[in-house]
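User: structure tokens for this one?
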Amino acid sequence: MALALNKTTLKQQRDQAKTYRQYLPSLDLKRQQLQAALKTAVAEQEAIESSIARYNERIEPLYPLLGSTTIATRKITSLVRVGEVVVEEENVVGTRLPVVRKLECEVADYSKWVTPFWVDTLVDALQHMAGLRVRHQVSEQRVSRLEHAVRRITQRVNLFEKVLIPQAEDNIRRIVIFLSDQERAAVVRSKIAKGKQQSTDQPEDDSLAVS
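Assistant:
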């Protein structure tokens, strides 16, 4: 659509540029807040992954014992299962993020008299691992949603900063130049017209009026 080079459009473009400049800082602030939230979420996810790795290291020495015992591995691992999990949503800088409000792991009854002593350690580790894996899944969702939110807000900031504001400023410049040229042209035309009028109104030479 062609840009109308007039005072009405000039006012519209100036108003738009003013609005864009006023809105940009709040968008940029929101981007910074989302980036900070994303950084925190990534750190939390990495902390959970480190905890999972530690428990894996704790369980690893027990693997050879599983092969030497008469107790079936399936039976031992089935002693632990995830029970009630309550995942809700919280609002973080306008983004809905899942958060674990309640997490319970259930341990089946087993006789400590007929099971090896190391089974208690294994069950404890499995219990923590089960809870950590649930939290890790939720943390992945938080990171994913925040990454998406950061991308969207960054696109909007770039739109205002690199497209809308420069475009409005360029339109203002074009209109101002055009109107200035028009004003100068009008002045020149006025002077020319005035000069012609003065020439027309000038009295004839007196010598021509002698009979």
